[in-house]
Specification:
- Residues 158-179 are annotated as: Disordered.
- With 246 residues, the protein is an all-alpha fold.
- It folds into three domains: 13-86; 96-179; 195-245, no CATH class.
- Helices cover 68% and strands 2% of the residues.
- The protein is built from six helices and two strands.
- Strands 1-2 form a two-stranded antiparallel sheet.
- Strand 1 and strand 2 (186-187) form a beta hairpin.
- Helix 1 packs across helix 2 and helix 3 packs antiparallel against helix 4 (149-174).
- It is elongated, with a radius of gyration of 38 Å.
């Protein structure tokens, strides 16, 4: 059966391609009704529709490339203008600005690490002093006689000193190494990095959590090997079956 197109007036290339595709799609709906073909004539008719739809898709892709080219060219021109200076740091070739930032961070980091170590040492000293003052205040309170005003006042002064030392220790704990030359302070951040020490144990753990990602990965590897021509028992644990497909 041949599909007869009714052409549109003032039609764009897309309109003509879409009109042709819709015509053949209607033919496809007539044939793809859930029943398989029964004879050679029907098989040839379905084959003709498949061929026509493929040609329609090819024509559409060619026309799409023609229509999108000016936009692609304009985008490429913008990218070309910006990339040398501003290409993202995650790019294979970052822009000069991001390279400069990375280089400056490398210069700054050793000093901030040293400063952070000094601040943490100061924090430890302040915490040790706060704990000592707290012990002395507690001891003074226990030892002071309720009838001895001077002793009570001395003990209360120890408490005030302990409170001040605890406040100083808390301030030291919150004191971090920063560089403050810009609008936003730059400081060290904690980054957690997982290092695989035993791959087998790690795989077992994640396999028990969810084996689907592993099966998908292995299936992709199997598919790649089969496309490369590996056959027979060359892949342990895998059966290679032959299927007839269009």
């Amino acid at each position: 059966m041949t599909a007869e197109a009714i052409h549109l007036t003032n039609a764009t290339p897309f309109d003509l391609i879409a009109e042709d595709a819709e015509t053949w799609l209607e033919e496809a709906r007539n044939w793809a009704d859930g029943q398989p073909v029964e004879n050679q004539k029907q098989a040839d008719a379905v084959s003709m529709i498949i061929d026509a739809l493929r040609k329609s898709a090819d024509a559409a892709e060619k026309q799409r490339k023609v229509e999108v080219k000016p936009f692609d060219d304009a985008k490429a021109a913008v990218q070309e203008r910006y990339a040398p200076l501003f290409a993202p740091a995650t790019n294979k070739s970052p822009g000069k600005v991001h390279k400069a930032v990375a280089a400056l961070k490398a210069v700054l980091a050793p000093y901030l690490r040293k400063l952070e170590e000094e601040k943490r040492a100061a924090e430890a000293r302040a915490r040790e002093e706060a704990e000592r003052a707290a012990r002395e205040a507690a001891e003074a309170l226990r030892a002071a006689n309720a009838a001895d005003l001077a002793a009570r006042e001395a003990a209360e002064e120890k408490v005030r000193q302990a409170e001040a030392a605890d406040k100083a220790a808390k301030q030291a704990a919150n004191d971090r190494a920063h560089a403050n030359g810009g609008e936003r302070a730059i400081g060290l951040r904690t980054k957690h990095v997982g290092m695989i020490l035993d791959l087998n144990e790690a795989v077992k753990f994640y396999w028990r959590q969810d084996d689907k990602p592993f099966r998908e990965l292995i299936q992709r590897l199997v598919d790649a090997d089969i496309r490369a021509g590996r056959r027979g028992s060359a892949i342990p644990g895998v059966e290679i079956r032959e299927e007839k497909v269009l």
